[in-house]
Design brief:
Helix content: under 10%
Strand order of the largest sheet: 1-2-3-4-5-6-7-8-9-10-11-14-15-16-17-18
CATH class: Mainly Beta
Distance between the termini: 26 Å
Largest sheet: 16 strands, antiparallel
Number of domains: 1
Shape: globular
Structural class: mainly beta
CATH topology: Porin
Radius of gyration: 20 Å
CATH superfamily: membrane protein fhac: a member of the omp85/tpsb transporter family
CATH architecture: Beta Barrel
């Protein structure tokens, strides 16, 4: 299996090396568009197109980090369709920063119930269609310190699930489709030296988002997120990266907005949504080191869990995962990497991930 993935990865890398060589010649645009053949726990085999555009909004601005836009169009053998645009734009001397995520999904998925003790054999399939919009505008208050405003909207419809199954037994909020919309705020301290693959600095962000019927939301609840990251340069371009992530809800929360454990960015090795509940806590780390020219590698490990109440967390119930991966620098100057990871969780949880950019 590993060698099969290496062959697929080489096809993608070979095409991108040619594209980037043109950028090395001094052309101002760093645009890469390439085919993707991937496999993950959630999608199985999938095929599509990915693109990345990196740029500076002002040629005279030598302070701001590189702005970026990324595009993904993916269709899987399980008939899952995902289209997404996300990016970050840094305005003059980073006085303002704009982050956006816009996506549409048509997705057969899996549901194991709610809570930390749901058994592996409780797996139940369901399907949905969803569009999602997330906008985050930040204003600099002081060097590296930003205040922000958030807007989030999600529409879920055509939800189908097993009659008499977990959705009905648990009376899961949002099981028949819904619309949510929320406004919030954030406070961020960001001293990372790079937006794609930091090797020095710190990132601390606290945000909240309130979803209310005044905004057209069919559910009233508030979401709180604390994201702390630290990057330690060691030697010879080796880096130790650490993250503490806490995601918490109060109120009545629909199913697709519950804390969702697992996936490509948190607790790799677990199916995204393998465990769902009101709250989530994740602590993870990566050791990143160069291998040869554009190739590098990582080793990672993490622990975490979900809970209904914050006081319910227990070390005895913590879930753990570990694994490793390889990186290929699509854009060496901007440190934009193509990453392939293999994560191993507890029980039957394990799988591959192929993504653009580092996990955190």
């Amino acid at each position: 299996m590993i060698f099969r993935w290496m062959r697929i990865l080489w096809v993608v890398l070979a095409m991108n090396t040619v594209i980037y060589a043109q950028n090395d010649s001094g052309k101002p645009k760093h645009l890469m568009v390439f085919p993707v053949v991937a496999r993950s726990i959630e999608t199985g085999w999938s095929f599509g197109t990915a693109g990345s555009y990196t740029f500076h909004l002002s040629k005279q601005d030598t302070v701001s980090r590189t702005s970026n836009l990324q595009l993904l169009l993916l269709y899987s053998a399980k008939k899952q369709l995902v289209t997404a645009i996300n990016g970050s734009q840094y305005f003059d001397k980073e006085k303002y920063i704009v982050n956006e995520q816009i996506s549409f999904s048509s997705y057969p998925d899996k549901f194991w119930g709610i809570g930390t003790h749901t058994p592996d054999n409780a797996e139940e399939p369901y399907q949905f269609k969803q569009y999602y919009v997330y906008l985050h505008v930040l204003r600099k208050l002081a060097p590296h310190l930003f205040a922000g405003l958030l807007f989030e909207m999600q529409k879920v419809w055509k939800v189908t699930y097993q009659a008499g199954g977990l959705f009905e037994q648990l009376k899961v909020p949002g099981r028949d489709g819904y619309l949510i919309a929320g406004l919030g705020a954030s406070l961020t301290y960001d001293k990372r030296n790079n937006a794609f693959a930091p090797d020095n600095g710190v990132f601390c962000q606290f945000s909240f988002n309130h979803f209310d019927k005044i905004l057209g939301s069919q559910f009233n609840y508030t979401n709180f997120v604390l994201d702390l990251r630290k990057y330690f340069p060691i030697f010879s371009k080796q880096v130790l990266a650490l993250q503490f992530f806490s995601f918490n809800n109060t109120g009545e929360v629909p199913v697709r907005s519950l804390a969702s454990f697992g996936g490509a960015n948190k607790m790799r090795g677990y199916y995204e949504g393998r465990y769902k509940d009101m709250n989530q806590l994740v602590i993870q780390g990566e050791y990143r080191f160069p291998v040869y020219k554009r190739f590098s590698a990582v080793a990672f490990a993490g622990g975490g869990n979900v809970s209904n109440q914050l006081r319910d967390y227990s070390l005895n119930d913590f879930k753990f995962s570990y694994g490793g991966g390889i990186r290929f620098a699509l854009n060496k100057k901007e440190k934009l990497n193509l990453r392939i990871d293999y994560g191993i969780g507890q029980g039957k949880n394990n799988g591959f991930y192929l993504q653009l950019g580092e996990v955190f």
